[in-house]
Specification:
Chain lengths: 107, 237
Amino acid sequence: MEKPNTNYINQLSGDDTSFRKKFVNLLKSELVIEIDKYKKALLEREYSNASQYVHRLKHKVSVLGLEKGYTLASNYENELKEKKDSFSNQKKFDDMLTEMVEFLKCL
Amino acid sequence: MFINMKCILIDDEAAARSIIAHLCSHVKTITVIEEFPSAIEAIKFLNKNEVDLIFLDIHMPNFTGFDFIETLKNPPKIILTTSDKNFAFEAFGYDCVIDYLLKPVTLPRFLKAIKKAGNTPNQNLTKVSKVETQQDHLYVNINRRLVKIEYNKIYLIEAKGDYIIIKTESENYTVHTTLKKIIEKLPDATFLKIHRSFIINYKKIIDIEDNSVLINKDVIPISRSNRPELMKKLNLL
């Protein structure tokens, strides 16, 4: 499985450690909130709302350098928009979110 | 290049706003004066404040970046930010959109967009596009689709509040814009504003009686001030 990385965050922050710290904290808190909202929407079968949250999470996926994860998130977002009976990308996407949360905890 | 460009950021995602704000801090000539998590809040702000540049996310719930652009009467320069490549075609349908940044935005790509903002005089955009578009059609944004309408099919354009209705012999199109904006796109040789609420294709006039014209099946009033211009355009015997 593809692993998250801080390449983009490092490139963005440069020598500005204060910004880096602030940005990582923001990423952590917003990620958790968005995951909760996504899961709630999914549970309530609000697939259109769930796709909106996946779209927002997609940005964080790419901020953490997950290129394949970005494609996975895009496909999943489309599946949710189409309101299919089952979502083939859901499991992999949820696993990736868990990986992202764990990774950010270590920063 | 502007001495100092006042800009605002509109994005429902705080991390995305933080990235753009940080990138802006690298450019001395840009000041971020406000950030908004929704386009609706930004509209309220813009009713009272002028800005030179907007960084605008396209994909926001309820009110998208494109919906936002449609509400602006005199939009400043806009740089769109999005996680989707799919909106590029639609994005460049707007004269005010000067660039389209894919998230996550990098500093080199950001600086390139800023350079465009400095090199494109906003107030001349509309005029330039009119000169350049010696075409026989225009595209209008209807429910986030760009629909092609040929000029020679249009016989009437009517203002209705914040919308216009473009009437053709086969179909009517309701578009969120103003008569002022659309007339800048239309060829002078065919279209004329004859009343504050109506633009006609004067080649389609059936007859003129006193202060009204019959065009297709619509009877349209001619305002006193516009009548001489209309009479000048007609091939009178």
